[in-house]
Amino acid sequence: MTKLFTLALVVATAAFFGLSASGLAAGNQDGERIKTGNCSRATDWKLKTKAEDNGVEVEFEVDQNRNGRVWRVVLRRNGSVVFNGIRRTRPPSGSFEINRIVPSGRITATARALATGETCRASIAA
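Below the sequence we write its predicted structure tokens.
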């Protein structure tokens, strides 16, 4: 019983460290962080940051799966607006994205569908 327990402990420890090491490498390989979520209805959002030489690349994507829908989008860094504009979902996936390079900080993104009022809210530390 002791040998079996020791073997199980070794295998579990190796699996734990193997998964942790690969998870850290994937998450930190390019300094990339990704958060995803649901909007107030059926739409999904993704907020991604990636370290760049001159700041942080921010990508905010809204995927509604319907083309031609108009959204008002506001992107903020530490509370200051870095993007404020209108975007339209486009083929083939019925989505849009905003890309900006900003200094590191707290990134928040809000999108509101003009026709329905559906709202997406996302934030991430970059």
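Residues 2-28 form the longest helix (27 residues).
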